[in-house]
Prior knowledge:
Chain A is mainly alpha-helical. Chain A has helices at 2-36, 48-79, 88-109, 127-157, 165-196, 205-233, 235-239, 246-259, 276-288, 290-310, 315-322, 328-350, 356-359, 363-370, 373-393, 400-426, 442-445, 448-476, 505-529; strands at residues 395-396, 480-481.
Amino acid sequence: MQQQRAENRLVLAHLYVALVCVFIGTFFGLMQVTSRAGLFQVPAWFDYYRMLTAHGVLLALVFTTLFITGLSTYATYRSIERPNRSLAIAWTAWWTMIVGTAMAAYEILAGNATVLYTFYAPLKASPWFYVGATLLVVGTWIVLLDILLEIKYFRGTHPGERIPLPVYMAVTNFIMWFLATVGLAVEVIFQLIPWSFGWVPGVDVALSRILFWYFGHPLVYFWLLGAYLIWYGVIPKILGVPVFSDSLTRVAFILLMILSLPVGVHHEFADPGIAHVWKLLQTGFTMMVVIPSLMTAFALFAVFEQAAAKQGKTGFIGIVSSLPWKNPTFLGSVLGMILFIFGGFGGIVNASYAMDILVHNTMWVVGHFHITVGGPVALTFLAATYTLIPTLTGRRFTSDGLARVQVWLWFIGMAIMSVGMHVEGLLGAPRREASLVYGGNPIAASWEPWSILSAIGGTIVFASVLVYLVAFLKMVFGGEKGETRFEFAEPDRYAKDTPAVLDRLGLWALVGVALVVIAYSGPVVQHFQYHIYDAPGMRTW
Amino acid sequence: MACFFVIVLSLAVFADINPPSHGETIDPTKVATTAPFDHPGLRQTGPKTYEAYYVGQVFLWTPASITIPVGSTVTFYVTSEDVVHGFSIPQEDVNAEIMPGWVSSVTHTFTRAGDFPIVCNQYCGIGHSTMFAHVIVK
């Protein structure tokens, strides 16, 4: 009991930092979406791009990462019973991430790192911004180490048994993340840090972009697999049915782990210096990621059907009417899934070799990631906290109505904002713009109604955050003492037949590395055949 | 899989639907003295065909304006003197990343008359949203 309380405090420490980032980051988002639409003149202290950097870093990098580290640690500790578990490694990870986040956040808010969350060289931020980002990533590596040590302990004490499914989902995500962040580490440690300290005069811009996007696309799957962990693991438990299929789940996670890696060049379709053939090859790999995502959709619908069948309900209406819509964790997750259907459609456009040019660097892309990471991922995470946080604090959350209002507002607001952004993008509006005036050009004027629609949607999302703040305070300080259970579903009855090879994580990691070699040796070898001029870099803000 | 890949690649090359993938490097510190970017601007290469050389820098494109007749095919060559920019003509499907040290190229035929802005669609600094030039098609 004592030990469980100590573990709960650790997980809460991850979640609280993540949620503070939500409160700050979405406020900046509100300011951006409304001022960009020309609805008000931003005050002098509000520097659009500085706040945009903070918005991206706090929400897309820190909130997601800290929530996933917390959730994955929880999934591991609750699935692997271990008396007298030491939390020293886990707390080291947390402190490393916190120190890194604080360093990077300070430099951003001080105006020394207005480079946005992609920090494309040769925009030159303070070196401490890059050091902070490095520490955040190193912290996640320590989390992976902690999970691997727990698996080692489990295998030692349970010879011949399968890795528990929640731990399996967590660890495959972190192995993929580790392999991806190696690219980021090479970029930051060997290129950006020495250059920003002034130890070397320039930076190889094209190489830095290949390394960044080698990391950048697996990053989005890292976010998504956090939500998948809840969809595959927790949603069936809420519905009172087992996991749909242990083996399907493991195959989906393995496919996502290896296929997320060789696809980053689809972010660089418009870059010079990478031949068509390599861009097309990675388009092919990208489209293969659709397979495990469709498997996920299939598994989820099957779980809904099984839950309805238990109540004797069949047919579309029977299934829909039998689901527990009053449960905010369930409701938020399903609304997130609905957004993800549209996010998936848009993603196929972005990753399409020829179509990307229509939308590359336009507001379409911004709309896309707001109904992917901002939709299914963020909404599932926030909805999960309604069960997870009371579980950890030993309380009962009784404001379900408030929570349902919050998830509906998020869903509606994000849908409206994203429609505005997608249409604006199709009309050619560039992303990351503080203003859209362009000397009164009629093409630019055609974007205005859609940017106003986005502002309306963004305001609704922020209203959702305010409701969440009230619900959050009730979860932490109010409510009654009692027991809440954030639990993972039982394995299905065929789980013992799951092929053992799926648990050979080292082998699959090697397959992932092999795909990376296939996908990247072409562009990298080609890169070094050019005469490369390093760019000196500058501060343009 | 391999077969499919080869077929799609052949179709893409044949149908010319490829994204800009020009491969040419340039010293970003010497753009102003390197031909042809020492004299950015429009050159006619045939009836209704042109080459246009652009330099991006914070926060403007040079040349600031070009004028061409309807039906002109223009091959743009663009480089940057400082940070990464994005060379985009909204609604005309001209869209390329412009990186210091590299020349990007994209060819486009203008079939409608109008005043088309060339915007910067890759964040380049405080004046990013004021960075634009004109293509006037008559």
